[in-house]
Each structure stands twice: as C-alpha cells, then as structure tokens.
Amino acid sequence: MTSTPPSQRESLTSISQRRIQAVKSKSIYVLPNAFTAAALFAAFYGIISAMNGDFLSAAIAVFFSMLFDGMDGRVARLTHTQSEFGVQMDSLADAVSFGIAQIVYEYTLKGLGKVGWAIAFVYALCALLRLARFNCNVGVVSKNYFQGLPSPAAAALVCGFVWLCVENHVPDFLVEYVPQIAAVVTLYAGLTMVSNAPFFSGKSYAVVKTIPFWVILVGAALFLLLSSNTSLSIFVLFCLYALSGYAYGFFCWWTGRPNPIQADIAKAIATMEEHKAEGAHEETPGH
Length: 287
Known about the structure:
Blueprint: H1 12-27, H2 30-51, H3 55-78, H4 84-99, H5 102-107, H6 114-136, E1 145-147, H7 151-166, H8 178-193, E2 198-200, H9 205-209, H10 213-226, H11 230-255, H12 260-283
Antiparallel strand pairs: 1-2
Helix pairs in contact: 2-3, 2-4, 3-4, 3-7, 4-6, 4-7, 6-8, 7-8, 7-11
C-alpha cells in the first residue's frame, strides 16, 4: 500500500483556508445580485403604490430602483464578481423596473382611454426592444455612450413628470393639458430608447476630461438654483439628459464627425465581413 509523500499532503489548515475562500467567492456573488433584487423590489413597490393611488411614493420608489440598479454593476466590478447570470438578471429586472409604465398610466394616461394604454404599451415595448438590443450589442458599441436613451433615464423622465404634477409644480395654464403632456413625454421617452442617439454613459472618465470648466460651473449654479425644489430639479436634470443625445448627434453632424454609435456598428459589420471573406477564402479549393 503506497502512501502519499509528506510533501504532497495538504495540511488541514490549507484545506480549511481553501474551503473558506471558496465559500467567500460564492457568497460575494450574492452582493451585486442583492442590489438587483432591491431595485426590482423598489419598482414593484412603486407599481403597487400606483395601483393604490399613492403616486408620490410610486415615483420616489422608481428613483430608488434607479439608485440600486446603478450600484449593482459597479459593486460587481469593484468586487470582481461579474457573471453572465448577473448580467441576465439585471436585464430582466430592468424590463420590469423601468419598462412598465404603470405609474404614469394610472396617474394621467388612463384618462385618455384607448390612446392612453396604447401609449403606455408603446413605451413598454420600446423598453424591451432597447434592453434586447443592448444585450446583443455588448462588445459592439463602445461603453462611452449608450445607444439610445437608457431605460432607467426614460423611467426617471416619465416618473419625474408624475412627481412634478403630484407636488403641484406644473404652471396653472398647463394643468388642464397634463394628460396630453404626459402622453408626449412618455412617447418621447419610449421612442428615444430605440433611437441611435449617443447618450453619455459615465463609464469612461476620458469624456469627462474634455468637458469645459464653464459647463461644470453652469451645472453647479443650476443645481444650487433648483435644489430647493427636488422634483423640479430631478425632472429638469433628466429632461436635459434626454435631449443631450440628440444635441450631441447634431453636433457630430454639424462638425462632420461620425456618430460614435453608427461608427461602432459600421466597424463591427466591416469586421464581420472580413471574417466571412477570410473563411470563404480558406474554403476555396487550391488555397
């Protein structure tokens, strides 16, 4: 009977440490997914609140959902716990959290009848299309920009308007047109999600370095001016962001620069064609 040499034996201490490390590595994956679950819970609470007529809590809950959704990916990258499971879970949670226009429908669009629920459905469909396109274009489109308005920002735009209305910050001469304005805002948010407009993602600091200092000063002044009114500040902020993609696209067109989204897609298509041509060349007899 042969025995394992002492040098090849694994000590109980090393075995224990290895098992503890394995448990830690598995348990830490729960952390980013817990933020995703929290985002889904906040959105679910918002839907229930909207069904019960508490639109203020519903709108605020969606913004908390945005906060948790923005943290899960960063926590995963910080702890080196990125996984395909987490990516898919985050995408499915986003479809529910930011793709269901329950709050704005219950608050204003319901009064428009069939047109109201049709607009709410278009928004939901665009949100799903945007998330599906995002998953397909991972590795194709640069991380510096989003292709179309991201779904959390679209939900913030819509729910921000509801929050604004609930706190009676809409001018008196526009109060009677609130359902129509809500319809326009919801349609704009939905259709912009499936556009090719480049929206700054905030994932690269290289773009931040190119922002002029006066822009930062103006932004800080606007924030201080509007900080006393939270709902108005948030709505104005996301309105500016929702317009920034088209503004930057126009700037690229005006200056003759390529749209970064279209440039990335064209580069990916060209690379794919090159691979196909190389494959066909290798299969040709005589080569």
